[in-house]
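Can't paste images in this forum, so I'm doing it all in text. The chain is below; anyone willing to post the predicted structure tokens underneath?
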Amino acid sequence: MIEDGGRSGLLDRHRGRAALLSRRSFLAGAGAGLGALGLAGCATDDLLRAEAAKAYGPMPDEKFPIPAVDIAKLDPKFFRRTVAYDSKEAVGTIVVDPKNYYVYRVEGDGTATRYGANVGRDGFRWNGDAYVGRKSEWATWTPPKEMIQRQPEAAQYAKGMPGGLDNPLGARTLHLYQDGKYTLYTIYANSDPDTIGKGITSGCVGLLSQDMIHLYARTPVKTKVVVLGA
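Text version of the structure:
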């Protein structure tokens, strides 16, 4: 859960740190080759990692250059890839599977693009239908009042933390709405591979920055988002 880019609970993972709050503190398209390998089902682990190294390489042309992902820290099952996926949802629909730590983009031909994700921790998960009400790049992050009450060190950002590599929202954010109202939940960018495949947030969903940029570019406002039960 977040408010205008706030991610309640991401600081919970590192509550004791009083130093400058980095992304790790808050948190405690190159997919074609991986997609083809995923459908073929015959690629070796070494070949998958070679392709992943390309997909998750540095992005120096970003406003704040994004470093390469240390794929040695990422289970290959969480690499971006194209997978068989039967769905009645329209092309472009985003489906979040928190139980298995995946986000899918429905491609409409019996396949989907699958991304590894982090999700809400126990007691903070939610499910239901929503839609992308707005999108933001390198957004300002503002901690909600509830978070500041739990973690006073967040008060230094009560007026907002500017976009950047240390900002919890990351390079791209999809803000989720229901019935015209902001849910306080987002799908956001995260550069820490150690968080993928874990429940660490207050209900928000994080993708690696390279994956989030890939999904963001293909996701217009009003896109349907389905969050499955855990």
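The CA atoms of residues 5 and 147 lie 13 Å apart. The mean pLDDT is 83.
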